[in-house]
C-alpha cells in the first residue's frame, strides 16, 4: 500500500529535523575544538534553551568543563543520564569529573601547606641571621 502524501511529508519533516540537529552538533563540535567555546554554546543553546538530545548535552557539558564551569557540566551530564541513551558513558564522565575536582582540591591544600611551611622556614632563617 503506497504511503499517503501526509505520511511522506511527516517523514520528510522528521528527516530534515534530524539532519539539522546533526549539522548543529557537528558545527558546535567544530567550534569547540577550535576553542570558540561561547560560540559553540550559543549554537547548542539558541535563545538560552537547554538542548534535549544526549549528544548535545554531552558536548555542552564538555564545553562547560573547558570553561571551568564544573557545576553546570555536572548538571548537563546528569540531564544526559536522564535521557537513557548511553547512560554509563555519562555516569563515567560525572565520576571522572568528581575525581578530578577532588584531586584538584587536594593539590590546592598541599600547595597551601607547602607555602606555609616555606614561609615558616624563611622566617626562621631570617630570625636566626
Q: Percent of residues in helical segments?
A: over 70%
Mean pLDDT value: 90
SSE class: mainly alpha
Low-confidence stretches: none
Outline type? elongated
Number of helices: 5
Radius of gyration, rounded? 24 Å
How is the biggest beta sheet arranged?
none
Describe the SSE topology.
Elements: H1 5-33, H2 37-44, H3 54-67, H4 70-83, H5 87-128
Comma- or semicolon-separated keywords:
129 residues; mainly alpha
What do these coordinates show?
There is one protein chain. With 129 residues, this protein is an all-alpha fold. It is built from five helices and no strands. α1 (5-33) packs parallel to α3 (54-67), α2 packs antiparallel against α3 and α4 packs antiparallel against α5 (87-128). The longest helix is centred in the last third of the chain and has 42 residues, at 87-128. The radius of gyration is 24 Å and the shape is elongated. The mean pLDDT is 90.
Amino acid at each position: 500500500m503506497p504511503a499517503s502524501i501526509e505520511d511522506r511529508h511527516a517523514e520528510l519533516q522528521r528527516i530534515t529535523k534530524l539532519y539539522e540537529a546533526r549539522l548543529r552538533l557537528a558545527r558546535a563540535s567544530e567550534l569547540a575544538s577550535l576553542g570558540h567555546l561561547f560560540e559553540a554554546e550559543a549554537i547548542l543553546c539558541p535563545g538560552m534553551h537547554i538542548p534535549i538530545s544526549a549528544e548535545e548535552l554531552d558536548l555542552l557539558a564538555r564545553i562547560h568543563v573547558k570553561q571551568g564551569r564544573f557545576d553546570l557540566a555536572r548538571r548537563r551530564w546528569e540531564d544526559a543520564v536522564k535521557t537513557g541513551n548511553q547512560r554509563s558513558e555519562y555516569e563515567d564522565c560525572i565520576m571522572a569529573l568528581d575525581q578530578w575536582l577532588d584531586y584538584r582540591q587536594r593539590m590546592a591544600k598541599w600547595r597551601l601547606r607547602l607555602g606555609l611551611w616555606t614561609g615558616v622556614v624563611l622566617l626562621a632563617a631570617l630570625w636566626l641571621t
